[in-house]
Amino acid sequence: MSVVSENKLDERLLRRIGELKERRNAVILAHNYQPDEIQDLADFSGDSLGLSVQASQTDADVIVFCGVLFMAETAAILSPKKTVLMPEPSAGCPMADMITAEQLRQLKAKHPDALVVCYVNSPAEVKAESDYCCTSANAVEVVRSLPAERQVLFVPDRHLGQFVQERTGRDLILWPGYCPTHQFIGEQEVRDLRETHPQAVVMAHPECSEPVKALADELLSTGQMLKFVRTSKAGQFIVATEIGILHALRNARPDAEFIAASARGVCPNMKKTTLDKVVASLENMQYEITVPSDIAARARRSLDRMVEILPKH
Protein backbone atom coordinates (compact mmCIF):
# COMPACT_ATOMS: atom_id res chain seq x y z
CA MET A 1 0.00 0.00 0.00
CA SER A 2 1.34 3.46 -0.89
CA VAL A 3 1.98 6.14 1.71
CA VAL A 4 -0.90 8.21 0.26
CA SER A 5 -3.28 5.24 0.55
CA GLU A 6 -2.14 4.58 4.12
CA ASN A 7 -2.72 8.23 5.03
CA LYS A 8 -6.23 8.15 3.54
CA LEU A 9 -6.98 4.96 5.47
CA ASP A 10 -5.71 6.53 8.69
CA GLU A 11 -7.83 9.64 8.10
CA ARG A 12 -10.91 7.48 7.53
CA LEU A 13 -10.23 5.50 10.72
CA LEU A 14 -9.65 8.67 12.73
CA ARG A 15 -12.93 10.16 11.48
CA ARG A 16 -14.72 6.94 12.39
CA ILE A 17 -13.15 6.96 15.87
CA GLY A 18 -14.36 10.55 16.34
CA GLU A 19 -17.92 9.58 15.35
CA LEU A 20 -17.95 6.55 17.63
CA LYS A 21 -16.49 8.48 20.56
CA GLU A 22 -19.35 10.96 20.33
CA ARG A 23 -21.98 8.24 20.00
CA ARG A 24 -20.62 6.26 22.97
CA ASN A 25 -19.70 9.30 25.08
CA ALA A 26 -16.23 7.79 25.30
CA VAL A 27 -12.81 9.00 26.35
CA ILE A 28 -9.62 7.47 24.94
CA LEU A 29 -6.53 7.02 27.09
CA ALA A 30 -3.06 6.18 25.76
CA HIS A 31 -0.03 5.26 27.80
CA ASN A 32 3.28 6.95 26.97
CA TYR A 33 4.60 3.68 25.48
CA GLN A 34 1.80 3.31 22.92
CA PRO A 35 2.43 3.74 19.16
CA ASP A 36 2.72 7.39 18.05
CA GLU A 37 -0.61 7.46 16.21
CA ILE A 38 -2.43 6.08 19.25
CA GLN A 39 -0.90 8.73 21.50
CA ASP A 40 -1.94 11.39 18.99
CA LEU A 41 -5.61 10.35 18.84
CA ALA A 42 -6.02 10.02 22.62
CA ASP A 43 -7.93 12.51 24.73
CA PHE A 44 -5.32 11.95 27.45
CA SER A 45 -1.86 10.44 27.24
CA GLY A 46 0.50 9.85 30.12
CA ASP A 47 1.36 7.31 32.82
CA SER A 48 -1.05 4.59 33.85
CA LEU A 49 -2.37 5.82 37.19
CA GLY A 50 -2.57 9.45 36.08
CA LEU A 51 -4.68 8.40 33.10
CA SER A 52 -7.07 6.39 35.26
CA VAL A 53 -7.50 9.32 37.63
CA GLN A 54 -8.12 11.74 34.74
CA ALA A 55 -10.71 9.43 33.22
CA SER A 56 -12.52 9.03 36.55
CA GLN A 57 -12.97 12.80 36.68
CA THR A 58 -14.69 13.05 33.28
CA ASP A 59 -18.40 12.61 32.55
CA ALA A 60 -17.64 9.92 29.95
CA ASP A 61 -19.66 6.72 30.03
CA VAL A 62 -16.95 4.66 28.33
CA ILE A 63 -13.18 4.52 28.84
CA VAL A 64 -11.07 3.04 26.02
CA PHE A 65 -7.69 2.25 27.57
CA CYS A 66 -4.87 1.86 25.08
CA GLY A 67 -2.30 0.18 27.27
CA VAL A 68 -1.94 -3.15 29.05
CA LEU A 69 -4.31 -5.13 31.26
CA PHE A 70 -3.35 -3.89 34.73
CA MET A 71 -3.93 -0.31 33.56
CA ALA A 72 -7.45 -1.04 32.37
CA GLU A 73 -8.11 -2.86 35.66
CA THR A 74 -7.01 0.23 37.59
CA ALA A 75 -9.35 2.39 35.50
CA ALA A 76 -12.21 -0.01 36.28
CA ILE A 77 -11.40 0.16 40.01
CA LEU A 78 -11.40 3.97 40.00
CA SER A 79 -14.45 4.30 37.70
CA PRO A 80 -16.84 1.52 38.77
CA LYS A 81 -19.82 3.12 37.01
CA LYS A 82 -18.04 3.51 33.67
CA THR A 83 -17.51 0.82 31.03
CA VAL A 84 -13.79 0.17 30.52
CA LEU A 85 -12.69 -1.28 27.18
CA MET A 86 -9.32 -2.55 25.93
CA PRO A 87 -8.86 -2.61 22.16
CA GLU A 88 -6.43 -5.54 22.49
CA PRO A 89 -7.24 -7.87 25.41
CA SER A 90 -4.07 -9.95 25.01
CA ALA A 91 -1.87 -6.95 25.86
CA GLY A 92 -0.50 -7.97 29.23
CA CYS A 93 2.46 -6.97 31.39
CA PRO A 94 5.11 -9.65 32.02
CA MET A 95 6.23 -7.90 35.21
CA ALA A 96 2.69 -7.77 36.60
CA ASP A 97 2.35 -11.49 35.82
CA MET A 98 5.45 -12.30 37.90
CA ILE A 99 3.44 -12.25 41.12
CA THR A 100 0.03 -13.66 42.01
CA ALA A 101 -2.23 -12.97 44.95
CA GLU A 102 -1.50 -16.44 46.33
CA GLN A 103 2.26 -15.86 46.15
CA LEU A 104 1.84 -12.56 47.97
CA ARG A 105 -0.31 -14.21 50.65
CA GLN A 106 2.45 -16.78 51.20
CA LEU A 107 5.04 -14.00 51.49
CA LYS A 108 2.84 -12.13 53.96
CA ALA A 109 2.48 -15.27 56.06
CA LYS A 110 6.27 -15.39 56.45
CA HIS A 111 6.34 -11.70 57.51
CA PRO A 112 3.03 -11.20 59.35
CA ASP A 113 3.94 -7.80 60.80
CA ALA A 114 5.16 -6.30 57.52
CA LEU A 115 3.41 -3.67 55.42
CA VAL A 116 2.97 -4.46 51.73
CA VAL A 117 3.68 -1.83 49.10
CA CYS A 118 2.82 -2.89 45.57
CA TYR A 119 3.85 -1.12 42.41
CA VAL A 120 0.83 -0.09 40.32
CA ASN A 121 2.20 -2.45 37.64
CA SER A 122 0.46 -5.39 39.29
CA PRO A 123 -2.82 -7.33 38.96
CA ALA A 124 -5.92 -6.11 40.78
CA GLU A 125 -5.80 -9.20 43.03
CA VAL A 126 -2.30 -8.24 44.19
CA LYS A 127 -3.37 -4.65 44.88
CA ALA A 128 -6.20 -6.11 46.96
CA GLU A 129 -3.67 -8.00 49.11
CA SER A 130 -1.52 -4.89 49.61
CA ASP A 131 -1.56 -2.12 52.20
CA TYR A 132 -0.36 0.60 49.84
CA CYS A 133 0.00 1.03 46.11
CA CYS A 134 2.68 3.23 44.54
CA THR A 135 3.92 4.48 41.19
CA SER A 136 7.49 4.87 39.98
CA ALA A 137 7.09 8.62 40.62
CA ASN A 138 5.91 8.36 44.23
CA ALA A 139 7.32 5.04 45.50
CA VAL A 140 10.02 6.80 47.53
CA GLU A 141 7.47 9.12 49.20
CA VAL A 142 5.14 6.23 49.99
CA VAL A 143 7.82 4.08 51.64
CA ARG A 144 9.37 7.06 53.42
CA SER A 145 6.01 7.77 55.07
CA LEU A 146 5.71 4.32 56.65
CA PRO A 147 6.67 3.64 60.30
CA ALA A 148 10.41 2.99 60.59
CA GLU A 149 9.85 0.01 62.90
CA ARG A 150 7.70 -1.86 60.35
CA GLN A 151 9.18 -4.19 57.75
CA VAL A 152 8.13 -3.42 54.19
CA LEU A 153 7.46 -5.98 51.48
CA PHE A 154 7.87 -4.38 48.05
CA VAL A 155 6.38 -6.14 45.02
CA PRO A 156 6.79 -6.97 42.20
CA ASP A 157 9.68 -4.95 40.69
CA ARG A 158 13.04 -5.52 42.36
CA HIS A 159 14.71 -2.72 40.37
CA LEU A 160 12.24 -0.08 41.51
CA GLY A 161 12.51 -1.57 45.00
CA GLN A 162 16.29 -1.22 45.00
CA PHE A 163 15.93 2.39 43.88
CA VAL A 164 13.54 3.02 46.80
CA GLN A 165 15.96 1.34 49.22
CA GLU A 166 18.77 3.63 48.14
CA ARG A 167 16.64 6.77 48.39
CA THR A 168 15.04 5.95 51.74
CA GLY A 169 17.71 3.94 53.54
CA ARG A 170 15.03 1.33 54.33
CA ASP A 171 15.85 -2.37 54.15
CA LEU A 172 13.01 -3.68 51.99
CA ILE A 173 12.04 -7.28 51.32
CA LEU A 174 11.99 -7.37 47.53
CA TRP A 175 10.12 -9.67 45.19
CA PRO A 176 12.33 -10.81 42.24
CA GLY A 177 10.13 -9.34 39.49
CA TYR A 178 11.36 -7.14 36.65
CA CYS A 179 10.36 -5.56 33.36
CA PRO A 180 11.90 -7.53 30.44
CA THR A 181 11.82 -4.46 28.17
CA HIS A 182 13.86 -2.35 30.59
CA GLN A 183 16.15 -5.32 31.22
CA PHE A 184 16.98 -5.34 27.49
CA ILE A 185 18.55 -1.89 27.77
CA GLY A 186 22.22 -2.71 28.22
CA GLU A 187 24.92 -1.00 30.23
CA GLN A 188 27.40 -1.01 27.34
CA GLU A 189 24.88 0.62 25.01
CA VAL A 190 24.47 3.51 27.44
CA ARG A 191 28.25 3.79 27.93
CA ASP A 192 28.78 3.96 24.15
CA LEU A 193 26.13 6.66 23.74
CA ARG A 194 27.60 8.71 26.58
CA GLU A 195 30.95 8.57 24.83
CA THR A 196 29.57 9.68 21.45
CA HIS A 197 27.21 12.29 22.97
CA PRO A 198 29.17 13.74 25.91
CA GLN A 199 26.83 16.74 26.30
CA ALA A 200 23.69 14.65 26.53
CA VAL A 201 21.74 14.20 29.75
CA VAL A 202 21.05 10.52 30.45
CA MET A 203 17.55 9.89 31.79
CA ALA A 204 16.71 6.38 33.00
CA HIS A 205 13.55 4.83 34.38
CA PRO A 206 13.86 3.18 37.82
CA GLU A 207 12.79 -0.12 36.22
CA CYS A 208 16.19 -0.28 34.47
CA SER A 209 18.93 -2.57 35.76
CA GLU A 210 21.29 -1.30 38.43
CA PRO A 211 24.30 -0.82 36.06
CA VAL A 212 22.16 1.32 33.72
CA LYS A 213 20.75 3.37 36.58
CA ALA A 214 24.29 3.96 37.85
CA LEU A 215 25.15 5.62 34.52
CA ALA A 216 22.15 7.95 34.53
CA ASP A 217 22.17 11.65 35.38
CA GLU A 218 18.47 11.54 36.25
CA LEU A 219 16.29 8.64 37.44
CA LEU A 220 12.72 9.51 36.49
CA SER A 221 9.30 8.07 35.77
CA THR A 222 7.88 8.81 32.32
CA GLY A 223 5.80 11.67 33.70
CA GLN A 224 8.84 13.08 35.49
CA MET A 225 10.87 12.83 32.28
CA LEU A 226 8.33 15.01 30.48
CA LYS A 227 8.38 17.59 33.27
CA PHE A 228 12.17 17.55 33.44
CA VAL A 229 12.83 18.19 29.74
CA ARG A 230 10.39 21.11 29.64
CA THR A 231 12.53 23.05 32.11
CA SER A 232 15.99 21.65 31.30
CA LYS A 233 18.44 23.80 29.37
CA ALA A 234 20.04 20.72 27.82
CA GLY A 235 19.57 20.20 24.10
CA GLN A 236 20.30 16.49 23.93
CA PHE A 237 18.98 13.56 25.96
CA ILE A 238 19.72 9.84 26.05
CA VAL A 239 16.54 8.08 27.16
CA ALA A 240 16.67 4.70 28.91
CA THR A 241 13.09 3.49 28.89
CA GLU A 242 10.57 2.09 26.40
CA ILE A 243 10.97 3.94 23.10
CA GLY A 244 7.32 5.06 22.92
CA ILE A 245 8.11 7.93 25.29
CA LEU A 246 10.31 9.55 22.64
CA HIS A 247 7.21 10.74 20.75
CA ALA A 248 5.86 12.59 23.79
CA LEU A 249 9.30 13.98 24.65
CA ARG A 250 9.78 15.34 21.12
CA ASN A 251 6.37 16.97 21.28
CA ALA A 252 7.29 18.54 24.62
CA ARG A 253 10.67 19.81 23.37
CA PRO A 254 10.73 20.01 19.55
CA ASP A 255 14.03 21.92 19.74
CA ALA A 256 15.87 19.09 21.55
CA GLU A 257 17.31 15.79 20.37
CA PHE A 258 16.17 12.59 22.04
CA ILE A 259 18.16 9.38 21.57
CA ALA A 260 16.87 5.95 22.58
CA ALA A 261 19.34 4.22 24.87
CA SER A 262 18.61 0.96 23.07
CA ALA A 263 16.66 -0.06 19.98
CA ARG A 264 15.70 -3.17 21.97
CA GLY A 265 13.71 -1.12 24.48
CA VAL A 266 10.39 -2.01 22.87
CA CYS A 267 7.43 -3.50 24.76
CA PRO A 268 5.63 -5.80 22.29
CA ASN A 269 2.44 -5.68 24.36
CA MET A 270 2.32 -1.88 24.23
CA LYS A 271 2.59 -2.00 20.44
CA LYS A 272 -0.41 -4.31 19.94
CA THR A 273 -2.94 -1.46 19.84
CA THR A 274 -3.82 -0.21 16.34
CA LEU A 275 -6.28 2.30 14.92
CA ASP A 276 -8.54 -0.41 13.51
CA LYS A 277 -8.62 -2.16 16.91
CA VAL A 278 -9.72 1.11 18.53
CA VAL A 279 -12.51 1.37 15.93
CA ALA A 280 -13.59 -2.22 16.57
CA SER A 281 -13.53 -1.65 20.32
CA LEU A 282 -15.88 1.33 20.06
CA GLU A 283 -18.12 -0.21 17.39
CA ASN A 284 -18.63 -3.51 19.21
CA MET A 285 -18.05 -2.33 22.79
CA GLN A 286 -15.21 -4.83 23.09
CA TYR A 287 -13.29 -5.91 25.15
CA GLU A 288 -14.77 -4.97 28.52
CA ILE A 289 -12.47 -5.18 31.54
CA THR A 290 -14.14 -5.75 34.88
CA VAL A 291 -12.86 -6.38 38.41
CA PRO A 292 -14.98 -8.34 40.94
CA SER A 293 -16.49 -5.92 43.43
CA ASP A 294 -14.83 -7.44 46.52
CA ILE A 295 -11.37 -7.33 44.91
CA ALA A 296 -12.01 -3.84 43.53
CA ALA A 297 -12.97 -2.51 46.96
CA ARG A 298 -9.82 -3.87 48.61
CA ALA A 299 -7.60 -2.73 45.74
CA ARG A 300 -9.19 0.73 45.89
CA ARG A 301 -8.20 0.91 49.56
CA SER A 302 -4.50 0.48 48.71
CA LEU A 303 -4.77 3.16 46.01
CA ASP A 304 -6.62 5.56 48.34
CA ARG A 305 -4.01 5.10 51.07
CA MET A 306 -1.31 6.06 48.58
CA VAL A 307 -3.15 9.26 47.66
CA GLU A 308 -3.75 10.16 51.30
CA ILE A 309 -0.04 10.25 52.20
CA LEU A 310 1.11 12.26 49.18
CA PRO A 311 1.65 16.03 49.51
CA LYS A 312 -1.38 18.09 48.55
CA HIS A 313 -0.65 20.63 45.82
Automatic annotation (TrEMBL):
* Membrane-spanning segments: none
Pfam families noted in UniProt:
NadA
Q: Which UniProt keywords apply?
A: 4Fe-4S, Cytoplasm, Iron, Iron-sulfur, Metal-binding, Pyridine nucleotide biosynthesis, Transferase
Q: Name one GO biological process term.
A: 'de novo' NAD+ biosynthetic process from L-aspartate
Q: What is its EC number?
A: 2.5.1.72
Subcellular location field: Cytoplasm
> Can you quote the record's cofactor note?
Binds 1 [4Fe-4S] cluster per subunit.
Pathway membership, UniProt: Cofactor biosynthesis; NAD(+) biosynthesis; quinolinate from iminoaspartate: step 1/1
Cofactor field = [4Fe-4S] cluster
- Which positions bind iminosuccinate? 31, 48, 119-121, 136, 205-207, 222
Q: Which domain of life is it from?
A: Bacteria
Q: Does the keyword Iron-sulfur apply?
A: yes
Q: What GO molecular function terms would the record report?
A: 4 iron, 4 sulfur cluster binding; metal ion binding; quinolinate synthetase A activity
Family recorded in the similarity comment: Belongs to the quinolinate synthase family. Type 2 subfamily.
* Summary of the function given for this chain in its UniProt record: Catalyzes the condensation of iminoaspartate with dihydroxyacetone phosphate to form quinolinate.
Family annotation (PANTHER family): QUINOLINATE SYNTHASE, CHLOROPLASTIC, QUINOLINATE SYNTHETASE A
Instruction: Give the NCBIfam families listed for this entry.
Output: nadA (TIGR00550), PRK09375.1-2 (NF006878), PRK09375.1-4 (NF006879)
Listed name of the protein? Quinolinate synthase
Q: Which organism is it from?
A: Anaerobaca lacustris
Q: Which gene encodes it?
A: nadA
